[in-house]
From TrEMBL:
Protein name per the record: Carboxylic ester hydrolase
Keyword Zinc-finger: no
Gene3D superfamilies: alpha/beta hydrolase
Top-level division of the source organism's lineage: Bacteria
SUPFAM superfamilies given in the database record: alpha/beta-Hydrolases
InterPro entries reported for this sequence: AB_hydrolase_fold (IPR029058), CarbesteraseB (IPR002018), Carboxylesterase_B_AS (IPR019826)
Keyword Lipoprotein found: no
Organism field: Streptomyces rhizosphaericus
Coiled-coil stretches noted in the UniProt entry, renumbered to this chain: none
Spans annotated as Disordered: 413-437
Keywords recorded for this protein, A-Z: Hydrolase
Family, similarity comment: Belongs to the type-B carboxylesterase/lipase family.
Domain Carboxylesterase type B: residue ranges: 9-308
Amino acid sequence: MTAVDVVDVVAAPAGTIIGRRTGGVRRFLGIPFAEAPVGARRFAAPMPRGRFTQPYDASRHGATSQCVPLFATTTIPEPSVPGDDVLNLGVVAPANGVSCPVLVWIHGGGFLAGSPASPWYDGRAFARDGVVTVTPGYRLGVDGFAPLDGVPPNLGLRDLLLALDWVRENIAAFGGDPGRVTVAGQSAGGGAVLALLSSPLGSGRFHRAVSVSGGFFEVGADAARSFAGRLGDRLGVPPTRDGFGGLTVESVSQGVRLLRSERGDDGPPVLGPVVGDDVLPVPVAEGLAVQGHGVPLLLGATGDEFDGGARGSHNAAARAAGTRVTDILLRAACPRAAASRRDAGAGTWLYSFEWPSPVLGGAVHCADIPFFFDVLDAPGTAEALGTRPPAELATSMHADLAAFVHGRSPAWEPATGRLGDPTREYGRPGATSAADTTGVFDPVVATGSVSAEAC
């Protein structure tokens, strides 16, 4: 019997919000948490949205910052929704939930693309397990991260901080507990989590953190300005607030895509969090050493990430040389974060996703998300994971993540950033719940530095 979709109404401090309920799952989508970043507000710090004077229709996804996908095809279905009101969020909650823990999920996309409206981020399984899921949008690319004169730095991170403020003020009306908020994300979203955890402005806004295939993705201001200059030349405008402000977000995004394609930029982010302001006063690794020590952190990566499924001795040799983006940007971040937080009392736990997709040729970037969200039936999963992905693996991974959000410590020992740290391995045949990570290459441990070209 099919569950009936019915109207659901919430009276929140933000105003009356009308969503839908299907069975035991409530959905409120596209709720603006800030004024639309258009006109004079396009390159300004986000302004909290005023209280709704009329009931707000939250029955469908709101506009997305992504208007042009970064790639022609992506592993994750990432729909673009037109409109200016891009600083909005979705809430998926259990029916009749009271004081449930909250998962705030930050989408990936290299800080240039991505969509909170992806069906892979649907929180229905978390609602089943007593968790409220929130999926915020944030400004991307030039509008979110270009260091332009007269523009507050790190606007994308400032958007996320404001979204967390909205959660603190409103989530109780949806059955969530504002005192039990876990901020989590994947890829650039995972990097944003680490940046927020290292930021003095993140203090008190969340209580647990999860970084899925994240890393230390801060971009040097000079490198970011250089990219903005090349982009301005490509678009025929000066790389300034007025120059880019005279173009549509779509045309700027299209220019970014074309420039990256022409130059073969498929490595480290070209735009992202910039160090040197009140949001990110020091590099992320340094910030983690002094901030967020009361926040438990779970982080990990997939076994292959961007290796394209290369396995065996050739893959081991590539990792040993430290030449893979997989290791330098993503897998190495796990022991480095644990080392930075060695004195943190809250603990840091590591995992590694090792199940090889028969379609993608390995345990590659993004393949773990449907397992963590337990949405193996979502659109696009068969194309990425095949027709028979292991349901028991989704059950296990989702249960671990849900338990962490509920406030439980993982079943394996915390990490200290040393070789051999215990790590939960998901999906490798014969893997135990706490496996040795000596084989995970860390270029910082091995050489004492990471090349500028790599980062």
